[in-house]
Amino acid sequence: MSATSTGGVNIFFIGVEFCCLLDPSICYFTVCHEVLVAVSMNQNKWEIRLFNIRSSDHKGNYPSAIREMEISVKPTPGCRDICKGNSLPPVLLCVSLWKKEELAVDFHEFTIEPSLFTFLFGIDLAMVNSPVVICGFPDGQVVFFPLKTVPSPKSDFTDNQTKSSTRLPLLYNLEQPVVFLGATKAQISDGENNPWTNSSNKLFCDCILLLGQGGLMVTITAGNKAEGGTYEFREYHLKAPVKSAFCSGPNLYYSTCSDIQCVVIPQPGADLQNRILSYSSYNIPMIRAMSPISCCSEGDKEFLALSDKGKLMLFILKQSEDTAQRARLSCSQAGQRIKELLSQIASVSERASPLKSLIEQRNHSLLNLNKVVAISQAVLTSRGANMPVRCKVKPLWTRRLQQDCLVASCILENKTDFILESGWNLCIHLSTEGSGTSYSFSVMNLQPEENMEFIFPLVTEESEHLEFPIKITFALVYSLQELDKSSFQDPQSSLFSHTQSSICLPLQEHIIDILQCLRLKPHTGQPFPTTFHCMSPLDPVEAFLRSSGGAECKPGQPSAISKAICNAESNYAVTLVASVRVASVILHRALKKEDSDTSLCSLLFHWLLSAELPLSQNPVEVHGMTPNGREFRLRVGEVSAYDLSPANPIPATEVQIISPHLDALACLHLAVIRRLQILAEKCNQDGCISPEINLDSIQKQVIARESLLKEVKSLLDNLCVRKDLSFESSAKKRLLCLYKELRDPGLLLL
Question: What is the per-residue pLDDT across 263-321, written as a single tens digit (0 to 9) for each?
Fold first, then answer.
């Protein structure tokens, strides 16, 4: 009554006669027949309280509820997060029984057809003419309660009543948050005009709507009275998610995240095969809430909408104008319009086809790049035996072009979860002292947990003969240009430069020594075969030192040094011997097994020649040839070292390398020393106790050896600066003496 209108804006004045209800827990309310229905959340329960808005006892104080009800929250799996966050409020709808002699006084109150009202809420509520409030909650429950209590038919809505602990009847459970409750007249009788366009008509509703956020719409209508009278629940599906909705006649308008859409509510009794309703769109996005304002004539729809950005907007949908515009088109004009639309669709399709292909290619390239990054991360963050991509190398003898040649077999293992596809390359670099070469192999479709073998020669480009040890370095390289080939037709649009167009992932390093490449044969016990009649009893160095000089080196002719060494290398018959000793306690700690009866000598042989020596053999001497065709013998025996320990002799195992070829002897000697150094370092890391040795004796031998080597170096420097190969007999004798001293077995022990 205290409202004025100025410029079309209604102004309401709040005076002292009004009562303020200060309760921040209230999340939704409505007014039904001068009763305020407020819903709030309290300790995982929904509380429904009723207040009399016409009571004269308020006097500005906090009003007391005339009735209170509770309902427990029972979230389904689809509503648990929403109920926990309390992000959606409940919705309320007040309906009453339709009577022909009564008129509706409130636009927001709905009267229900008598049979449907009686079937849903019972004959008792129909007899007392009690309005019913339907409540929909975010957990999917839809319940109802009457404003009047059944035991007091004559009681008014304002009578004080006690708190209700009775369980509220469950009308339906949508199993998704309820966003709208409504009632409408869905069925129009034959010959009846649209009753919603005439506001003077007193209408009743024959359909109650329940709408969920997930797009589930349930209609409740009265069944066939001839079959005994009942009600029907029918489920339909709309486009989700639904934010807000309202009914206008037989149409339901609802807002999604991107549009406002309209569906026609199916009439009661209609048998629809498809439960997914077709809709019309109005291209109005980002509407959070909307509500009808009034019933417009000529089928226009007027409603108020609130956007996501907080703007309040008024919309009027002119359906009659749209219908008239479509009616003015003739058949020929409509046909021409359809042809133009089809032509435009074809043109857009032609332009979209290459774009779609390009997008698919780029998506494929990005997917491959994602796999490359994942493989790179797995390789770079692991080392040793845990590497997901690793190589195993083994030298092999093969025969090509009627010649025996030595190659290496590399087994690439893929332990990742990805396929090594086109673009991956295995790069192998071989390096020896002073030379090196590289190989590159394409990795094609290597599946997870599978292997791929690559074979490559061990001879480098700079050297025709094998030089040991050979260091092999492996790297996995991915060419980023493979991504550009499929994604970018224009080379200038490449994402990657030509100077930095690959990803290199270093893998393991392997050392191949001469012991892995020997060719063993049965030991005959005979001395090394001789193929020359004239044999020198000296080794090459001694033969050179005893040779007479005096001839000056001429251009284009081989020097006397070259001839002497080459001839001596081919014709001497003196067997050269080099030995290496290792403490038996180290071998016992590293190689000996508790349940094994094999001797330390056999264990050491198998450890040195694991690739060539069968496990069934337990030899103490082997005979074979090096990859360059040099004959040799390896002999292992147990000895005692007397000159290294101050107390007792040290039990040791001696490895003797015997060969008439100095190059083979030196190469085998270095390989055995490297192997035993690795064994000794491993024992030191494991805490093996080394025997005590006489460091003073070793130091004296080292000093003596260094002194002899310095004198040899000085004599050789003087020899190299001369123009001819002749030098004084005294210098020659001194070099020969020094060489004999350097060959002393006691010094070779070092």
Answer: 888 887 766 677 888 888 888 888 999 988 865 555 677 889 999 888 998 888 766 44
Q: At what angle do helices 600-608 and 584-591 cross, to 10 degrees?
A: 70
Residues comprising the chain, all counted: 750
DSSP string, 181-221: EEEE-----TT---GGG-TTS---B-EEEEEETTSEEEEEE
Question: For the whole model, what pTM was predicted?
Answer: 0.47
3-state secondary structure of 586: helix
CB 416 within 8 A of CB 458: no
How far is Cα 484 from Cα 487, in angstroms, rounded to an integer?
A: 5
**Burial (CB count within 10 angstroms: exposed 0-12, middle 13-18, buried 19+), residue 535:** middle
State the angle between helix axes of 695-720 and 729-742 in degrees (0 to 180), rounded to the nearest 10.
Answer: 150
- Asked if 535 and 574 count as a contact pair (C-beta separation under 8 A), the reply is no
Q: 186 phi and psi, to 5 degrees?
A: -95, -25
pLDDT band per the 50, 70, 90 thresholds, residue 384 = confident
Q: Which residue type, as a one-letter code, is found at position 172?
A: Y
Residue ranges and CATH numbers for the domains of the chain are 26-73+88-151+166-187+202-318 (2.130.10), 333-485+499-512 (2.60.40.10), 571-748 (no CATH)
Written as one string, the DSSP assignment of 474-541 is EEEEEETHHHHHHH-SSGGG-SS-SSS-EEEEEEEEEEE-GGGS-EEE----PPPP---SS-BSS-HH
First to last CA, the chain: 119
Contact 168, 161 (CB under 8 A): no
Cα separations (Å) of 371 from 169, 364, 367, 413, 478?
A: 57, 11, 6, 17, 11
Q: Which residues make Cβ contacts (< 8 Å) with residue 565, sequence separation at least 6? A: 540, 543, 544
Cα–Cα dist 486/353, whole Å = 16
CB under 8 Å, gap of 24 or more: what pairs does 606-609 form? Answer: 607/675, 607/679, 608/515, 608/634, 608/655, 608/672, 608/675, 609/515, 609/518, 609/520, 609/634
Residues 475, 506 contacting (CB under 8 angstroms): yes
pLDDT digits (tens, 9 = 90+) for 446-496: 999 999 999 998 876 666 677 888 999 999 999 887 776 554 444 444 444
- E strand or H helix that includes residue 702: helix 695-720
CB atoms within 10 A of CB 618: 14
Tokens of 611: 């690739």
